[in-house]
Design a protein that fits this description.
The protein is mostly beta strands. The protein has 2 domains: about 140 residues, no CATH class; about 260 residues, Beta-galactosidase, Chain A, domain 5. The strands form 6 sheets. It has a 9-stranded antiparallel beta sheet with strand order 16-17-18-19-27-24-23-21-22. A 5-stranded antiparallel beta sheet has the order 5-4-9-8-28, with no helix packed on it. A 5-stranded antiparallel beta sheet has the order 15-14-20-26-25. The longest helix has 9 residues. It is globular. The termini are far apart.
């Protein structure tokens, strides 16, 4: 067992944390603070290894876990094997770089006279309710905490909250998902499913690719204390026609999972392929009795029972938009899954359709267990007007709705953590 795995399994993310006058609530557990390099103009161009993050604890500055990731020209984490250009210079803080911390690692505001034992404070980052981080230059202290333990060779991920196992050779094939305190049996999910289909020359001669055909190849990976990132590439070939290359970055966090997808669409294939669809779904494993909500059905969810009925059909046929597309699954067994799809502003009008199947006998490959109980997710339909297809699917794991209404829970759970950055006052 690696040191990183031991560190991650030894960590506990409390449901309610108080650091001095800094307070958190249960929905803050596992949330990540994301900032960009442009938030810190005073240290732009500085070497990343000279910068670190600290908080105040018992009257002194202590290091906290953090992660600087350098991004590429498309806003993804940069890897040499991706063949994308880095947005900035390697090893130094640029506007496009990302800084990540765990929200519950923040502490109270530092007294005006308090200084770190080494180095200098260059930014005060205010988050949550009276909570603060401090960006420090020239301090050698580093936290040893890791919130994600991801063994890429065997496909196993462990955090304080969940366990995820996937096929090492195919990131799309999920084998097991468990959650701390889950009251059900076995894996919560059957597998993750990705499917691409299109008519070749005609919408009537339709071909489809699934997990087995869309076997992504790893071209780079990064294991950090806040998230693990894998860069995957798959070449899409329909009827012998090489359609496009899809680049996916799979990101594991302490309490959620993200898949960022990027592809260029040549004009030739827009004319050749008719009515294309890209679908991403999660297939539940025997989640009988679970409830499923959307923004349009926030007050009248459907209940998973393994049988197709009128309520299921009305739910499945509802319209979605990129502006409001969350899906909330509550197992009622101490586990909930919130999914959300996000796209850049220029793709907000891309048609998106809900996929919802509740049928104990229906087989939709790939799967480990017969039945869709339930299978839920999204289908992007048609080519977007821009030449680039970009979207992110986020899966947020939790123990339930915390007594909240579905809409309020979905909005709060998926919201980015607000923050304010200020420079320290001169002495």
């Amino acid at each position: 067992m690696t040191l990183r795995l031991l560190l991650a399994l030894g960590l506990f993310i409390p449901a309610l944390t108080v650091h001095g006058q800094c307070r958190f609530d249960p929905l803050d557990r596992g949330r990540v603070v994301k900032l960009s390099g442009q938030d810190f103009p005073v240290v732009e161009g500085k070497a990343l290894d000279t910068l670190s993050v600290m908080r105040v604890e018992q009257g002194r500055f202590v290091p906290v876990a953090y992660q600087f990731d350098e991004l590429d020209e498309h806003g993804m984490v940069w890897f040499e094997g991706s063949e994308f250009a880095m947005a900035g210079d390697a090893g130094q803080l640029d506007k496009a770089d990302q800084l990540l911390m765990m929200l519950t690692d923040a502490g109270p505001q530092a007294p005006a006279t308090l200084r770190p034992a080494q180095g200098a404070i260059v930014a005060d980052i205010a988050v949550a309710r009276n909570c603060h981080f401090y960006l420090v230059e020239g301090n050698r202290q580093r936290s040893q905490n890791y919130y994600v333990a991801h063994d890429i060779d065997n496909g196993m991920t462990r955090t304080a909250l969940y366990e995820l196992n996937v096929e090492p050779e195919n990131e799309l094939n999920w084998l097991y998902l468990g959650y701390q305190g889950y009251q059900g049996d076995g894996s919560i999910i059957d597998t993750l499913k990705m499917r691409m289909s299109a008519g070749v020359l005609s919408r009537f001669t339709r071909m489809s690719l699934d997990n087995h055909n869309l076997r992504p190849k790893q071209v780079g990976h990064l294991l950090g204390p806040i998230r693990s990132v894998m860069h995957l590439r798959t070449k899409v070939v329909l009827a012998g026609i090489p359609v496009m290359t899809i680049q996916v970055q799979a990101m594991r966090y302490a309490a959620h999972y993200e898949a960022h997808t990027f592809a260029r669409i040549p004009d030739l294939y827009r004319a050749t392929l008719k009515d294309p669809e890209v679908a991403v779904t999660v297939d539940g494993n025997a989640q009988i009795g679970a409830r499923v909500y959307t923004a349009r059905f926030a007050d009248k969810p459907v209940t998973v029972d393994g049988q197709i009925d009128d309520a299921d059909e009305r739910f499945a046929n509802q319209s979605l938009s990129m502006h409001e597309n969350w899906i909330l699954f509550d197992s009622r067994k101490q586990f909930s899954l919130l999914t959300a799809m996000t796209v850049p502003d220029e793709l907000l009008e891309t048609p998106v359709k809900l996929i919802y199947e509740d049928d104990r006998a229906l087989q939709v490959e790939p799967e480990q267990f017969t039945g869709q109980l339930p299978n839920l997710g999204y289908s992007l339909q048609g080519w977007p007007e821009p030449q680039e297809l970009r979207f992110t699917v986020s899966l947020y794991f939790d123990e339930g709705l915390h007594g909240m209404e579905a809409g309020a829970f979905a909005q709060q759970r998926s919201a980015a953590v607000p923050y304010a950055v200020s420079e320290p006052l001169s002495e």
